[in-house]
């Protein structure tokens, strides 16, 4: 639906006066009939509008009128009293089911109707109306963006979405700028705008916060899909699917922001691939293994010192170069297989290998290896997942080489754009406002997608991590395979093909 005039006439050129035209003696009868017809039309229209607006009141009036004309006021009255009593008892004795089955659906219906009905007025108030002069009549009319497909995307989480088509002369950016005011005007605690076309966008109003609760670990997918790894929940109540294939992921947040939960959820999402040998995880935990040790069995290689970490990064870079040379001219896209698994290089607190390492030589080697993987690793299936507390440039100069950035709780608002890129804070990424009582909450920004998305990673407690590592450790066969055997192994394994079919 396109924008349309809402008939708010702000200026009207003078009309030829009809008052002076001479009327014949019969004209007053015609005028009276026209006036009476207009009155009847107005009354019918108003009655229909009122009935549409207040259906319950209208229904009650109709029933009372019916009961009165049929002389049945007493039985109808008794039925009404019993009904009211049932509702009152239900409300106080079983408030949960009352809310779920009656109060909430009624509220949702009212809210949706109110927004649809008041849309032109809302647009006027938040500055989205445009004054347009009609060329033929010379009238100035107020045009507002069109609203269609207004529906509850998630009834449980109270997420309302609608498609908005801006008026010619406006851009989706104008709509995005007014998002906060529009959200407040509609009584939502947050409102987001996602561009879907040159003049169209999906507007999402959030009346509840699905991220207020801890997200329990999601079911582990039975087939590896590295292009959509389930990691948690998005603020619109939909699963948060993170791309791992052909990207690099940077996770930034202050201490206690919940970076660990993103890492464990990510590992949970690819656990089947790890178990089946389609994915290898090489992990570096510069904090002497304190963070990642519980999942040790999931890792093909595990470095717990800066020296070993740097060596691991260099080995990954060599593997990447060799694989890229083999793929050259035959394939442009890496498909995970047991011969050539997707290699995830996981670095917890990457600054320990770069900025905080006093040994200059080690630091240079780490930076060189990281830069090589970040710039060339995507095509040959070597993916970098790095976690970091301090987003300042001097700590990790390679930030811009990560196409997927996850910003968790940050200390200062200036750090938001530092992590997610210019304009992210303006587009609604308020990482500095994430509460310290909501670890795991983050804003995700993927290159090529304008708007950051608010998410919460699922929470793996110690027991869940231990269980994950126990049940999805790589088989002894794939674990015993030397790291560089991928270069020499002569034949493909029989079940490779079937596994590849399920991979990204
Ligand atoms: N997704 C989550 N949901 C609920 N609670 C969480 C979540 N993630 C983390 N927590 C809680 O927050 C605490 C800190 O989390 P975590 O250790 O992952 O933070 P971090 O960002 O990795 O911190 P550091 O950088 O100091 O290692 C955890 O012990 C846990 O209690």
TrEMBL record:
Domain FtsK: 237-417
Gene3D superfamilies named among the record's database cross-references: P-loop containing nucleotide triphosphate hydrolases (3.40.50.300)
A Pfam family the protein falls into: FtsK_SpoIIIE
Residue ranges crossing the lipid bilayer per the database entry: 51-68, 74-94
InterPro entries reported for this sequence: FtsK/SpoIIIE/SftA, FtsK_dom, P-loop_NTPase
Record's keyword terms, sorted: ATP-binding, Membrane, Nucleotide-binding, Transmembrane, Transmembrane helix
UniProt binding sites for ATP: 253-260
Feature: compositional bias, Basic and acidic residues: 494-504
Domain of life where this protein originates: Bacteria
Region (Disordered): 1-23, 471-504
Ranges in a coiled coil: none
Name of the molecule in the record: FtsK/SpoIIIE domain-containing protein
């Amino acid at each position: 639906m396109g924008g349309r005039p809402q008939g708010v006439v702000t200026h009207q050129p003078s009309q030829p006066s009809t008052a002076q035209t001479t009327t014949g003696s019969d004209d007053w009868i015609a005028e009276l009939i026209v006036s009476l017809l207009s009155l009847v039309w107005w009354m019918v229209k108003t009655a229909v509008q009122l009935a549409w607006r207040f259906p319950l009141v209208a229904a009650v009036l109709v029933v009372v009128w019916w009961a009165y004309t049929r002389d049945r006021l007493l039985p109808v009255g008794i039925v009404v009293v019993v009904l009211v009593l049932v509702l009152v008892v239900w409300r106080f004795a079983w408030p949960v089911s009352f809310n779920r089955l009656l109060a909430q659906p009624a509220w949702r219906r009212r809210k949706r109707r109110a927004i649809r009905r008041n849309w032109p007025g809302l647009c006027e108030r938040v500055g989205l109306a445009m004054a347009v002069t009609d060329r033929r009549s010379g009238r100035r009319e107020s045009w507002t963006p069109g609203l269609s497909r207004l529906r509850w995307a998630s009834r449980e989480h109270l997420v309302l979405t609608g498609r908005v088509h801006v008026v010619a002369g406006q851009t989706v950016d104008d709509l995005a700028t007014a998002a906060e005011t529009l959200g407040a005007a509609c009584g939502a605690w947050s409102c987001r705008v996602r561009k879907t076309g040159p003049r169209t966008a999906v507007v999402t109003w959030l009346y509840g916060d699905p991220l207020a609760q801890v997200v329990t670990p999601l079911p582990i997918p039975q087939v590896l899909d590295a292009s959509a790894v389930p990691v948690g929940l998005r603020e619109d109540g939909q699963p948060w699917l993170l791309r791992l294939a052909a990207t690099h992921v940077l996770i930034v947040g202050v201490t206690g922001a919940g970076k660990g939960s993103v890492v464990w959820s990510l590992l949970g999402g690819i656990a089947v691939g790890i178990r089946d040998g389609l994915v290898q995880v090489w992990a570096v935990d510069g904090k002497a293994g304190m963070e990642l040790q519980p999942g040790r069995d999931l890792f093909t290689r595990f470095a717990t010192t800066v020296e070993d970490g740097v060596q691991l990064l260099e080995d990954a870079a060599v593997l990447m170069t060799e694989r890229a040379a083999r793929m050259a001219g035959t394939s442009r896209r890496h498909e995970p297989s047991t011969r050539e698994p997707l290699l995830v290089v996981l670095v917890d607190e990457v600054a320990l290998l770069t900025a905080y390492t006093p040994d200059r030589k080690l630091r240079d080697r780490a930076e060189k290896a990281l830069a090589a993987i970040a710039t060339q690793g995507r095509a040959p299936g070597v993916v970098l997942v790095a976690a970091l507390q301090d987003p300042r440039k001097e700590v990790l100069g390679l930030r811009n080489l990560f196409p997927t950035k996850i910003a968790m709780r940050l200390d200062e608002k200036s750090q938001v754009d530092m992590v997610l890129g210019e304009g992210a804070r303006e587009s609604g990424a308020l990482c500095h406002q994430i509460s310290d009582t909501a670890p795991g909450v983050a804003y995700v920004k993927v290159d090529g997608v304008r708007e950051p998305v608010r998410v919460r990673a699922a929470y793996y407690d110690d027991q869940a991590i231990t269980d994950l590592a126990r049940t999805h450790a790589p088989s002894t066969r794939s674990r015993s395979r030397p790291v560089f055997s991928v270069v020499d192994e002569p034949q493909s394994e029989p079940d490779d093909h079937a596994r590849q079919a399920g991979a990204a």
